Amino acid sequence: MNKTLYHLVSWAFQDWIWGGDLLDADNLPEAGPAVMVSNHLGALGPIAVGASLPLEMYFWIHADMLDPRLAPDYLRRDFVEPQLHVPPP
User: Fold this and answer.
1) Contact between 50 and 57 (Cβ < 8 Å)
2) pLDDT tens, residue by residue, 13-72
3) Which stretch of DSSP H or E encloses residue 18?
4) What share of the chain is helix, strand, coil (3-state, %, to 5)?
């Protein structure tokens, strides 16, 4: 994705969908690489974080979440049971 399209999509998401506030933006690096670690609630969390920052982001994700054979067990074990308190069948 080219930078213009990336920033246009980020701006649209930030203003129309997310609407959150970015606090302490002066702590963000102006150039160079950086690693950001965040916690989020829900599926839109990573998108909201990326759209809130005036930086081009590349996301890392746990490989089990991308493998159709492993994702159901990963979601059940790490989300459905502990967060939703739904016991296994």
Assistant:
1) yes
2) 777 766 667 788 888 888 888 887 777 777 777 777 777 777 777 777 878 888 899 888
3) none
4) 50, 0, 50
Query: Which SS3 state, helix, strand or coil, does residue 30 take?
Result: coil
- What size, in residues, is the chain? 89
Q: CA end-to-end span of the chain, whole Å?
A: 42
Contact 53, 28 (CB under 8 A): yes
Q: Alpha helices, DSSP H only, in 15-84?
A: 45-52, 71-75, 81-84
CB 79 within 8 A of CB 48: no
The two counts, helices (H) then strands (E), for the chain are 4, 0
